[in-house]
Amino acid sequence: MNRRISLMSSILPAIILLTTLANGQPSGGFGRSPQINPDKTVTFRFNAPNAQDVKLSVQSEKAPVQMVKNERGSWSVTVGPVKPDIYPYNFIVDGVQVMDPGNMHYFPNERFKGSLLDVRGDSSLIHSMRDVPHGTVTYELYPSAEGTTGTVLVYTPPEYDKNPKQKYPVFYLVGRTTDTEETWFKVGKANLILDNLIAE
């Protein structure tokens, strides 16, 4: 019994600390962000009660857009209609660029970190999710010439593992400047494009 109490007394401060840290993060209770509306306008929200100025910087707009603060300290703005595509964006909070804490999708880049807005269209978009067989994307490690370990993403087409003797061409996609190995897939949707092209 004493051991159980001792164990709980050592764990409890850690639980309290984690709870405190979680409560210190921006909460999603102020509404979904981004919210894509039926008319293809998009509503962005950001919870920052102590901020003096918040703007939205999104690739679909020519310049940063001023956001409006409500009585609860939540900032919001609606833009568009937005043409179906994928757009990086972030919030400029008192001059500092920050990602959207309400959006788990981000732009993989070594220089900047932006959130991603995916405005879906019909199935005519080449990168759209269609009802076709899908390939597999795997993460592989390799030793680099610099003595470090690099990461590469490998796409294999549908039925690849079921036909080990089938030969396939190799297509290399290399990111530019500060893009990471994930950019072609998380932003460029290369795997969905290849799925759709193979199905055609």
Describe what this molecule looks like in 3D.
- It is a single chain.
- With 200 residues, the chain is an alpha+beta fold.
- The protein folds into 2 domains: 28-119, Sandwich (Immunoglobulin-like), CATH 2.60.40.10; 136-199, no CATH class.
- The chain has helices at 2-24, 183-186, 190-199; strands at residues 35-36, 42-47, 54-58, 65-66, 68-69, 74-79, 85-93, 96-98, 106-107, 114-119, 136-143, 149-156.
- Strands 3, 4, 7, 8, 9 and 10 form a 6-stranded antiparallel sheet that branches. A 4-stranded antiparallel sheet has the order 1-2-6-5, with no helix packed on it.
- A hairpin with a 5-residue loop joins strand 1 and strand 2.
- The termini are far apart.
Secondary structure elements and pairings:
Layout: H1 2-24, E1 35-36, E2 42-47, E3 54-58, E4 65-66, E5 68-69, E6 74-79, E7 85-93, E8 96-98, E9 106-107, E10 114-119, E11 136-143, E12 149-156, H2 183-186, H3 190-199
